[in-house]
């Protein structure tokens, strides 16, 4: 079971809850697919709202496991390994 949650503050814009739910669905779908597909399992994500002081916690559940993706394996070498026709994972280096 995969779980992911995001907090929506009480004073957030009107569409924040909808946008956050979509983000939670897309994130869980992407980690469950080897090609980081944000839509493949998005419809299967169960969403729960938990009232919190100052807002709502959006919790998503997906009956699945993290996909084994090349850039998460110990022997991954971005200069050698090709993902999705030439796209490789590059860790974020901080603000530029």
Overview of the molecule:
This protein is an alpha+beta fold and 96 residues long. It has one domain (2-72). The protein has one helix and three strands, in the order βαββ. The protein has one helix spanning 16-31, and strands at 2-9, 46-52, 55-62.
The residue ranges in which pLDDT falls below 50 over 5 or more consecutive positions are: 85-89
Count of discrete structural domains: 1
Helix/strand/pairing category:
alpha+beta
End-to-end Cα distance, whole Å, is 36 Å
In DSSP terms, counting alpha (H) and pi (I) runs of 4 or more, how many helices?
Answer: 1
**Beta-strand content:** 15-25%
Measured as a percent range, the helix fraction is 10-25%
Overall number of strands:
3
Secondary-structure topology with pairs:
Elements: E1 2-9, H1 16-31, E2 46-52, E3 55-62
Antiparallel strand pairs: 1-3, 2-3
